[in-house]
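Justification of resources, computational component.

The compute hours requested in this renewal are based largely on the per-chain cost of generating structure records like the one below. Each record pairs the submitted sequence with a full structure-token output. That output is archived, and it is also reused by downstream analysis tasks.
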Amino acid sequence: MRRPVALLASLVLLLTLWAGGTPRASAEERVANLVGSVQTELGCAADWAPDCTATDLVKDGTTHSRVFTIPAGSWEFKVAINHSWLESHGAAGGSANIPLTLTAAAKIKVSYDDLTHLVTVSPAELPGQATGADRSLAVSSLRSLLTKERFYFLMADRFANGATGNDAGGLTGSRLESGFDPTDKGFYHGGDLKGVTEKLDYIKGLGTSAIWLTPSFKNKPVQGEGENVSAGYHGYWITDFTQIDPHLGTNQDMKDLISAAHAKGMKVFFDIITNHTADVINYEEGLYSYISKEVSPYQDAAGLTFDDVAYAGTDNFPTLDPATSFPYTPVFRSEADKTVKVPAWLNDPTLYHNRGDSTFAGESLHLRRLRQAGRPCSPRTTRSWTGWSTSTTPGSISASTGSGSTRSSM
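The structure output for this chain reads:
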């Protein structure tokens, strides 16, 4: 009875050898090795030789890795599977070679993840003692008090609805007037500051020490037309820097949130937008393509060309004329729009670039960008932030300028 079984096994082996020459390695037997221009330096007879076992990586589960001593020079490599070019992985898991440049010989750890196919390179050791140059890089953090905070980044409108009465922000009419439509991801959904306050125990239970709120000031409810229409739930279309967006609650609701968070040992951070406001300005020319300073420099009210960067941080910024100083002539869309922004100085059209729609990838095309150079903006915006700090609770401003935002700790 055993001979047919043995015969069947022999036939299977013969068929396997006939189909592939040698039995294919199973998933558990997969071998990964470094192949590239450095292989002859690592004991191989030739470079770019996937069949060289001298550069095999050591397998540990689905991870393959090994430390190599690689001489100084510029090299390229990738990882081959099962000593063949039938499967190989390079930069970002793709087919491109991975470059490696060393100014001195170094021990380098090459790792390959067989699940993600990502190849990573890291130093296996740092040679020598720290030098004076190294120590000069190890300076104190500019935000030393914040480096140990565990932030929970939170968009109030999408978090929890603690008061349905403010869902429409006190406005009436359709979603195009109120901005409220919980069925559309581009409109307000009803979350508010009271909802955040009610969930503080949940947030703290995650290990959070600080809540970072998306911009919470009063926004223009709706911008855009047709398919591009949406609401200001995200907080980037601010009209009033002194008032919480009515869709999110009141200034008192913010004070209550901060007090309740402090009572639980947590901080609250504002995300304060410093470089743009709501879009209430059109251009008289009816054109909106961006025009650079190289093509059309700024001109003062007397018609003299100047570079705004030269006046950064000074108190003598040139007087401007909205009719002649910019590539486009700013005009308000309505009489109400002329005074809609608070503080009132934000209604001055000469404080904006007036150069056309933004070209920044990922940014709204229609953000009206404030000029940051010179006297008109910086001190005034700073007073707005510090006003919030002193009116909500004793605290301090922690300014972190990045992507146009400043985080203010409360």
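The chain has a mean pLDDT of 84. The radius of gyration is 31 Å.
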